[in-house]
Amino acid sequence: MVAPNRREHARRVRILVLWNAGRGVAPGEDEGWARSHVGPIGSCPGVAALALHPVISAAVRHPQPCSWCLEVRLAPDHEPSEVVRAGAFAELLGDMQLLGMRPRVLAIDAELR
């Protein structure tokens, strides 16, 4: 199997950021907080598109693992690590840490094989 070149790889990669509602953010206000803080990520270098999704548990007997998911599609020729290190993205992750939201950042291939 031949490895995809960097450009093909970047087009298929998505970054997912999963997090819980934070301390200091009142119930019902978390959507407004998320939308206002996620907005600047769209102007980071390497971001082609983004979508914010509320997360619900699919397993009745297990707790909800997180509250929100930010899905980021990369522009061609950009690596996930460089996008996550961009100013607004790094600032968002730092704010989430300070608020106890426990952000988890994943880079995934957008195609099933």
Structural account:
The protein has 113 residues and is an alpha+beta fold. The protein has one domain (6-109): Alpha-Beta Plaits, CATH 3.30.70.100. Helix content is 29%, strand content 25%. It has 4 helices and 4 strands, in the order H-E-H-E-E-H-H-E. Strands 2-3-1-4 form a 4-stranded antiparallel beta sheet. The longest helix has 12 residues, at 87-98.
Short summary:
By secondary structure, the protein is α+β, with helices and mostly antiparallel strands.
Task: Give me some keywords for this one.
single chain, 113 residues, alpha+beta, Alpha-Beta Plaits, four-stranded antiparallel sheet, 4 helices, globular
Question: Topology, pairings included?
Answer:
Blueprint: H1 6-12, E1 13-19, H2 30-38, E2 47-54, E3 68-74, H3 80-84, H4 87-98, E4 104-109
Strand order of the largest sheet: 2-3-1-4
**Unreliable stretches, pLDDT < 50, 5 or more residues?**
none
Task: Write down the overall mean pLDDT.
Answer: 84
Q: What is the level 1 CATH name?
A: Alpha Beta
Count every helix, treating DSSP H or I runs of 4 or more residues as helices.
Answer: 4
Q: Work out the strand percent.
A: 15-25%
Cα distance spanning the termini: 13 Å
CATH fold name: Alpha-Beta Plaits
